[in-house]
Amino acid sequence: MLPDDCLFCRLYRDGDHVASTEGFVAIRDINPQAETHLLVIPERHIDSFHDIGEFSPDEAKRMLDFLAEVAAHEGLSDYRLVVNAGPEAGQTVFHLHWHVLGGKLTRRMT
Ligand code: AMP
Ligand code: ZN
Q1: Is 92's C-beta closer than 6 angstroms to any atom of ligand 1?
Q2: Does the structure show a pLDDT above 70 at 48?
Q3: What is the residue with the minimal CA distance to atom 19 of ligand 1?
Q4: Tens digit of pLDDT for each residue in 9-43?
Q5: How far apart are CA 109 and CA 84, in angstroms?
């Protein structure tokens, strides 16, 4: 899929961001599966975590730091980080993203 047609490339540009840092944003999941359910989206389009090798060590570290910042920003002391890597694992949007889940799961992650 070309980035121009990509939902998360569009939400990176135009979405309602809960938090942001250079190259990364957090948005609320439209269909929450926990009391708090955010998505962390990098600006740079890679289809999935399978392509994580395209990120520099610095980018990867900043992404991990941002995940922790987003959880803290939401007041979460404990939380889950989930990446569905590939369709067989339930990935439906093919732009890398992390689920940040806090509180009780309200639905089963499928
Ligand atoms: P995954 O199944 O891991 O690819 O996750 C995709 C996530 O994107 C799902 O949890 C959806 O609920 C969420 N989602 C889809 N469309 C939107 C949207 N327009 N805004 C926010 N979240 C969305
Ligand atoms: Zn994209």
Answers
A1: yes
A2: yes
A3: 30
A4: 999 999 999 999 999 999 999 999 999 999 999 99
A5: 10
Cβ of 93 below 6 Å from ligand 1 = yes
Q: Which amino acid is at 69?
A: E
Distance 29 CA to ligand 1 centre (A): 6
- Specify the CATH number for 7-105; select among 3.30.428.10, 3.40.50.1820, 3.40.50.720, 1.10.10.10: 3.30.428.10
Distance from first CA to last CA of the chain, Å, rounded? 23
Q: Is the CB of 90 under 6 A from ligand 1?
A: yes
Residue extents of the structural domains in the chain: 7-105
Mean pLDDT of the chain, nearest integer = 95
- Is 97 annotated in the active site? yes
Between CA 56 and CA 37 the distance in angstroms is: 27
Instruction: Give the integer Cα–Cα distance in Å for 95 and 83.
Output: 11
1 band by pLDDT with thresholds 50, 70 and 90? low
